[in-house]
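Fill in residues.
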């Protein structure tokens, strides 16, 4: 079957649908309208089932087979920041030079678009009667808490799932993992006093400063992995509490973004901070933040902000199937690599151990930027890939 030629018939549908989704702002925990729009598209295209689960993920199903394959594309986006930074309206879905521009064009509204139409193409050419149950999941709150929405869909809504393909931008290569990440908060406690006589107190900011320098130096000596790359850490926020601007602060808190390469764990990363010369165990506390923001349905899932590293071996059947499907869609063999940023794979593979890969239109460097865009030609190619993946996978299963 010539999947690329058949996918061409959905070019205008993909352009229309993605522009419609971009016009619906959907920051984390505010995805209701875009979830309903995706559900309506699934129903219009004749999915066997389309619904929104209790956490707010939109889910569609094609087929009733015993092998359960999930396509995941999170439907929330980051905000736009300062509107004056944009040279165009980020919520209009601008068309220019063969690209669609706008917030979410590359991260990550392009994913549900190509996955929905890829599933439709698969269904129209025998997929509905294949050995697969194919689920398209538009997951929520990925930008705020990686994997939380998808994990709920996999564990609670769908139950048994055999394979996952994530639609985050890969520039049409096949990705098989990425570093984990965690967030760390450190608080230094001091003693407040009047700013006119600072020697009477203990300035919490001064107490924190040596640790900030230690963390900067720690980043230079973290572990390296040949595939995933280097672990990293950086201070991303600092704040203090003080009775007034004329008083010595009695509390200073920093937020650390820690990226974990192979072999690094939550416990090892925390211990590295405790072992730094500037960490004073008597006057500092160390903790992982907890995420408990309600979803757009009002449901709360509480979790600490630790997201494990994951890698699927290159010789795994799902990776080989992904390469085969991408070759059919592209007309050439794709690269096999990994993301620099984090994805919902931390839930499917990292936490639940479900074999997972990624394939998506768009370039990772455009995500979260004012150049948020996706090439229209790549949308069509990705539709062909998602239509071809189940049959490719079937050929690699015993």
């Amino acid at each position: 079957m010539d999947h690329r030629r058949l996918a061409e018939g959905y070019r205008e549908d993909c352009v229309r649908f993605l522009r419609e989704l971009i016009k619906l702002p959907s920051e984390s925990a505010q995805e209701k309208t875009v979830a309903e729009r995706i559900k309506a598209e699934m129903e219009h295209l004749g999915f066997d089932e389309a619904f929104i689960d209790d956490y707010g993920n939109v889910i569609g199903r094609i087929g009733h087979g015993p092998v359960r394959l999930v396509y995941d594309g999170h439907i929330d986006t980051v905000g736009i920041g300062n509107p004056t930074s944009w040279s165009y309206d980020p919520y209009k879905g601008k068309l220019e030079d063969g690209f669609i521009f706008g917030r979410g064009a590359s991260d990550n509204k392009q994913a549900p678009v190509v996955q929905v139409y890829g599933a439709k193409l698969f269904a129209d050419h025998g997929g509905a009667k294949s050995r697969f149950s194919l689920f398209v999941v538009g997951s929520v709150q990925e930008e705020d808490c990686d994997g939380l929405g998808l994990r709920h869909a996999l564990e609670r809504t769908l139950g048994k799932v055999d394979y996952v393909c994530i639609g985050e931008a890969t520039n049409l290569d096949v990705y098989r993992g990425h570093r984990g990440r965690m967030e760390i908060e450190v608080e230094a406690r001091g003693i407040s006093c009047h700013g006119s006589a600072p020697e009477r107190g203990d300035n919490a900011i001064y107490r924190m400063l040596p640790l900030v320098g230690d963390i900067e130096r720690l980043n230079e000596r973290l572990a390296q992995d040949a595939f995933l790359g280097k672990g990293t850490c950086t201070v991303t926020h600092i704040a203090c509490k003080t009775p007034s601007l004329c008083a010595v602060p009695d509390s200073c808190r920093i937020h650390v973004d820690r990226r974990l390469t192979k072999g690094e764990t939550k416990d090892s990363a925390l211990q590295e901070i405790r072992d730094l010369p500037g960490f004073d165990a008597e006057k500092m506390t160390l903790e992982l933040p907890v995420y408990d923001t309600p979803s757009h349905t009002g449901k709360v899932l509480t979790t600490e902000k630790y997201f494990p590293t994951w890698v699927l071996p290159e010789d795994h059947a799902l990776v080989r199937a992904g390469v085969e499907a991408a070759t059919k869609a592209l007309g050439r063999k794709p690269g096999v690599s990994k993301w620099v940023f984090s994805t919902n794979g931390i839930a499917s593979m990292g936490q639940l151990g479900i074999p997972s890969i990624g394939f998506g239109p768009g370039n990772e460097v455009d995500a979260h930027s004012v150049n948020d865009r996706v090439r229209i030609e790549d949308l069509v190619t990705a539709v062909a890939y998602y239509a071809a993946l189940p049959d490719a996978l079937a050929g690699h299963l015993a």
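The chain has two domains: 3-178+309-394, 180-291.
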